[in-house]
Amino acid sequence: MKITVLTYLDSEDEASKEYDQVVLQVARTLRRLGHRVSVLGVHGDVKRLITGLARRRPDLVFNLMEMFGDDVFGDIPVTGLLDLLGLRYTGSGPGELYLSQDKGLTKKLLAFEEILYPRFAVFSREAAFETGGNLRMPLFVKPLRSDASLGIGGKSLVHDTVALMERVTAIRKELNDNALAEEYIEGREFYVGVLGNNQAKALPPVEIDFTGFPDGVPKVMDSKAKWDERSKEYKGTRSVLAQLPDELRARLQKVAVDAYRALRVRDYGRVDLRLTDTGDIYVLEVNASCYLEKSSEFAMSAAAAGIDYPRLIEQVVNLALERYGKRK
User: Tens of pLDDT along 154-182?
Assistant: First the structure.
């Protein structure tokens, strides 16, 4: 097939930079699978995006668009544009992406499906400041919609109302986003990848090992732990295949699939969970169209299920094609 890998980078050359290998990896893998592959990188120019797609006339768009221009939520309207152009593409559409990015809506959908999640309050930029009602301290405060751990750091865990007000104000000012405060769940953290649509299946859980994390710092995957290779947080965490009893593994996977379905995620995604000492499993976030880099937790868990990277990319392609075939 003719497949266009769509990215917010301006060219395939940029994809060779260390900070975003996934575009190059996916393109190379698709070529090795026998497809005719082009990379379309557009950073904020709608006309160029439409022209580039019209010129390529792909049978399928492998969508790796994470933002558009300066808009970190620009991946949502881009998928809407792909729908308007009548193009088939991998991953979730505008509705599913919006639901998973708005953490408040995510939790409301989880509540309807009776899936456990941390109690929360949303502090809108348009509304007067509130105290958070009857939420129990400590609270973890983060942006309502921003991803990639933006706005999450050492000050995110608050123990009193003054600190809560300061953190909410900072998020509103620095990220131009609403703030979400949720009760902090102490426990083990797991990432569970899910593949599929009508017959979604969970991959083996990956656990975040916080053994080397600095003392006195809340054990969360903030921006330092994810991206700052020089930081103690980055060096003090590692992702490992979870060693679990069969019953617990099955429970984690069931909660992940239930959350995946509740958010209507398409093709592939990742669900972040916390397991308490009492055995309760909380859904922290649902990541539609999650990161597909070779060393990512999603690829790691797929490999543990016997799905190597080429087969993983092939499965994403096939799931998208099957979905459009059924729609027709």
Answer: 678 888 888 888 888 888 887 778 888 99
